[in-house]
Amino acid sequence: MAKLLEVENLSISFTQYVQGLNRHDSRVISDLTIDVDESEIVAVLGSSGSGKSLLAHSILGILPYNSHVTGEIRYKGQTLDQDLKEKLRGDEICLIPQSVNFLDPLMKVSEQAIGECKDDAEHKERKVRQREIFARYGLDESVDNLYPFELSGGMARKVLLSTALIEDPDLLIADEPTPGLDKKSVEETISDIKNLKEHGKGVLLITHEIDAALKTADRIAIFYSGYVIEINDVKNFSSSETVLHPYTKALIDSLPRNGFKLTEGVQPLGEIPGCPYYENCPIRTDRCNKERPELEEHDGVMIRCFNFKEANDGA
Ligand SMILES: Nc1ncnc2c1ncn2[C@@H]1O[C@H](COP(=O)(O)OP(=O)(O)OP(=O)(O)O)[C@@H](O)[C@H]1O
Ligand code: SF4
Ligand SMILES: [Mg+2]
């Protein structure tokens, strides 16, 4: 399978000025590596504030002005620089944004979904597709002429979904696409995402709902404190014995109790010399507090931990 998206050693930090002139740089994403193949759904699972939306926005080239980015992003083997991001955005690469603020408040929602057209014939063709997708999500014709402020939260989310799917993108970045949706629309969304995959497309599904990731993804990347700590096949998430990182194991063991939601434990932020999971890790050693483990491949699994072999051999 050809690689569609490759993110290599991506770090994102922000420059802020505290009390006037005191400059402060805060690192939010560190050394992030992830990839999506054609015909593949990769879920990024992380708790609130762990940098998931920033990852999405960096791929689309819509990060805030005070951000500083290092690392490389490639799309179909080509470096995804700002020019290429702008060229492909909303066309080959589409975003289902997390926030409904992405809707243009001054434009009727059907026209936003249809987008720019070169002539009337194209507009007519896209209007048919817009209506078809809106109808699939239970948005009847009366919705077409509404402005975003006239929509309920759930309707606005459905408009965002439809607007991304109307393009039939090669790469879809879905940033928390399902919260706030009714059960039928959640199922519809999952089915649409899977349908893209069946047609050779790639999807990066960003979520803090493990259940959605387990039902949809081929691989799951676990985010902890701005680092990817494990990328593993979805089938291995059925038991804590078949995942490798101590945090992933703790996560899976806690699932039935917490209703399949990520626990919101305190995660260290900013520059730390050692492993980000050091404070909570049951198998830590002195080395872990001094040196930071790299994300490395082990039998097809990407893992960031010095001691996982010993821990898993002993299991
Ligand atoms: N413009 C900015 N300046 C400074 N910090 C920012 C800026 N934008 C985002 N951040 C910080 O980056 C961190 C990650 O934000 P992000 O929105 O990517 O998290 P998330 O994982 O998507 O969370 P959620 O699950 O709640 O959507 C947050 O702590 C946020 O405060
Ligand atoms: S590197 Fe050390 S502290 Fe970090 S997860 Fe592995 S054993 Fe635990
Ligand atoms: Mg987010």
UniProtKB/TrEMBL annotation:
GO terms for cellular component: plasma membrane. NCBIfam families: oligo_HPY. Residues 5-250 form the ABC transporter domain. It is found in: Cell membrane. GO terms for biological process: peptide transport. Keywords: ATP-binding, Cell membrane, Ion transport, Membrane, Nucleotide-binding, Translocase, Transport. PANTHER family: NICKEL ABC TRANSPORTER, ATP-BINDING PROTEIN, OLIGOPEPTIDE TRANSPORT ATP-BINDING PROTEIN APPD. InterPro entries: AAA+_ATPase, ABC_Ni/Peptide_Import, ABC_transporter-like_ATP-bd, ABC_transporter-like_CS, Oligopep_ABC_C, P-loop_NTPase. It comes from Methanobrevibacter millerae. This is Nickel import system ATP-binding protein NikD. GO terms for molecular function: ABC-type nickel transporter activity; ATP binding; ATP hydrolysis activity. It catalyses: Ni(2+)(out) + ATP + H2O = Ni(2+)(in) + ADP + phosphate + H(+). The complex is composed of two ATP-binding proteins (NikD and NikE), two transmembrane proteins (NikB and NikC) and a solute-binding protein (NikA). Its main location: membrane.
